[in-house]
Each structure stands twice: as structure tokens, then as C-alpha cells.
Amino acid sequence: MENQSQVTEFIFLGLTQNPAAQKILFIVFLLLYLATVVGNLFIVVVISSSPSLFASPMYFFLVILSFLDACFSSVIVPKVIVDSLYEKKIISFEGCMTQVFAEHFFAAAEMIVLTVMAYDRYVAICKPLHYVTIMSRKLCFFLTGLAWAGGFLHSVIQMSFILPLPFCGPNVINHFMCDLNPLLELACTNTHNLGFMVITNSGLICTLIFSLLLISYGIILYTLRTYSTEARRKALSTCTSHITVVVMLFVPCIFEYARPPITFSFDKMVEILYTILTSFLNPFIYTFRNMEVKNAMRQFCVTKPFFIKK
Predict the structure, then answer these.
(1) Is residue 117 predicted with pLDDT exceeding 70?
(2) If both were cysteines, with which of 26, 73, 127, 223 could 279 make a disulfide (CB 3.0 to 4.6 Å apart)?
(3) CB hemisphere CA count around 132 (13 angstroms)
């Protein structure tokens, strides 16, 4: 067997083969995608236009997170929307590899940003007198660059596993997107060792970061015992939003990548949770419980309307 790919395209089975159900999915995913992009970019614009909020490290990182959510959703959902219109769902080999790279790039960067946001809350609550000194603007930019660099490095490592593999057929992926485990199943070679590398590079890292985040939030909650009732309520509101997003992103990722490359029937539902629904829900999670962001939105809509009065 030649050590090169003979497959030039892959075929997705998608979420369903029922034409009527596909039409419903087209409408549902189109609405979800529009709401995701508009909601996340609206947060980016509102916070960026508010000097008081944008100067705060917490909201600075929220802007980065919202931008990553919009990008992450755009890597996957538009293809799912288009595929729901066709019986045969095709993606080129190059397009598939690009989707894998972009998906893991934005997902890894988002996980790092969530970790940074947890560190920001830890410093704010556990070391309040040193918060301004520690969370300087210079450190915020450095941590943002670290998130982008970490996401890029993670994706490069993942692609170094996938690109050398020979794909000689079959080329049917029982999924709605390209990902590591479905591709490993199609490779015309023994991928046992590569499956272990994927678990190490994705699953164990996700598990380790998730465990550290839970420990950090445990320390934060323990420290809040000494705060006043009002301060405790405000801090708990912010921490609850962070914990909700962390659980929604990390738990499905751990389930997908911290196990051998075996496909389960409910894998697609798990993928929908962290690739589509999490990005859609993040704007609601961070705004509905945050009075400062809601006030900034009201002020933005009043001072910068979408039409010019004569």
C-alpha cells in the first residue's frame, strides 16, 4: 500500500437521512447560527465601546471569549446548514483537514481563555489588594497571545497525527463534521498508537485543566465565606456563569477525547452540545446574570442606534 492518501473527498452521513427532518434541521441550525454570531459579536461591540468595561480584565477576556465563540461556530455550523439541503454531503480532503485544524485551534484557545478567566476571578477574590498590580494590561495581552499560540500549537500537533495517515477508502464518515476519531477509523493503517496520542494531547489535557479549574473554584468559594452578603452574591453570580460555561465545554470534550477512538451512537449529540449549543448559550449566560453588561447594552442602544435621526 502506498503511504499516501488516495481519497480526495469524504461523505458525511449527517444527523439524519430523512428529507423532512433535514429541512427542519436547516431552519433550526440557521437560526442558532445567526443568533450565535449576532449575540457574540454584539457582546464584543458593546464591551469594546464601553471604556469602563473594556478596562476591566474580566470583560476584556469576555470579549476574547465571545469572538472565539463566533469563530468556533463558523467553522462547523455553516457546513451543517448547507449539507442539510443536499442528500449527498461532500467535503474535500483539504476542506476536511482545514476543518479539523480550525476546530481544534479555536476550541483550545477558548479553553485557555476560560482558564485565564478563572485565574482572574481567583486573583480578584483571593488577592483583592494585589488585583490591579497582578492583572495588568500587559499581562492581559500576554495571556491573550498565549491563548492564540496555545490553540495553534495544539492544532499543529493534532494535524501531525492525521496528515501522514493513508486514506484509501472507504470515505464515508458517520458524522456531520470532520474530527479525529472518525478519521482514525477510516485510515488504512493501524491507528492504535495514534489513538493513544490523541487521548494524551486532547483528553488528558482537558481532564487536567478541568480538574484544576474545579480546584480553583473550590478555593474561590471557600474564600467567599469571609465576604459580606452583597459581595458574596455578586461574586457567586460571576463564578456561576464561568462554571456553567466550563462544564458545558469541558465535560463533552473529555467524553469525546479521553477514551479510545470508538464511535458511539450518541457522539453526534455530544458534539452538538459543545460545538453549537455552548457558543449559542454563552451570550445569554454572561449577560442575563450580569447587570453591568446589561446596562452597557442599554446605553449602547440609546447612544448608538442603528439609524441616524434627522
Answers:
(1) yes
(2) 73
(3) 2
- φ, ψ of residue 190 to 5 degrees: the values are -75, 120
Site of grid cell 457574540: 40
Cell of 135: 492583572
Ranges of each domain in the chain? 9-303
Is-contact 75 151, C-beta < 8 A? no
Residues 6+ positions from 104 with CB-CB distance below 8 Å: 151, 154, 155, 158, 202
Check whether 1 has a pLDDT greater than 50.
no
Question: 9-303 maps to which CATH number?
Answer: 1.20.1070.10
* Residues forming beta bridges with residue 10, ordered by sequence position: 91
Burial environment of residue 76 by CB neighbours within 10 A (0 to 12, 13 to 18, 19 or more): buried
Residues facing 90 on adjacent strands? 11
Q: Is residue 68 classed exposed, middle or buried when 0-12, 13-18 and 19+ CB atoms within 10 A define those classes?
A: buried
Global confidence as pTM? 0.88
**Cα(121)–Cα(125) distance, rounded to whole angstroms?**
6
Closest by Cα among 32, 16, 19 to 77: 32
Q: What does the chain come to in residues?
A: 310
* Residue 4, pLDDT score: 52
Q: Which residues fall within 8 angstroms of residue 167, CB to CB, at 6 or more apart?
A: 5, 6, 7, 93, 183, 186, 187, 188
Q: DSSP for 196-214?
A: HHHIIIIIIHHHHHHHHHH
Please tell me the distance from the alpha carbon of residue 155 to that of residue 201, in angstroms, as a whole number.
Answer: 10
